[in-house]
Amino acid sequence: MKNLLLFTFSLISIISMSQGLLPTSDIKYMDGKITNIEKLAKKNDLVVISLWATWCAPCKNELDAINEVYIDWVEETGVKLYAVSVDDSRTINRVKPLVNGRNWGFTVLLDTNNELRRELNSPSIPLTILIKNGKIVYRHSGYTPGAEYDLYEKIKKYK
Q1: Cα 19 to chain center, whole Å?
Q2: Which backbone phi and psi does 113 adopt, to 5 degrees?
Q3: For residue 11, what pLDDT is reported?
């Protein structure tokens, strides 16, 4: 029975993602205020969500690379980026010092229970999604140097 429920949940998640529906699980700002992706996407018509963790070197490399060009992206396209940490209770205390040290120019949110990660059916990170008018229009897992330029091309396409 447990396997059937897990299979059903996975199937629903995959169907939802294929239709571009947004996850509804709660995530937190660094100050503890609660929001969700649906609310964030309503504030802006073009949103990038990046799932990352303090222990994930490719995640930090991707966010550092994006940070170098992020101001230009915002000026040219109006895109808003939210970096959602999936650090759990053992590593969550590393998030704030890391973010402060890196001086990233985008908003960092917390998904300590990995609910958003599960809703996005993401077995690995980094995971980057692009949302346009409340629908997921692009999804990419992993990071290699230069991938931020591919992301920017997608952002310009949906601008």
Answers
A1: 18
A2: -95, 0
A3: 41
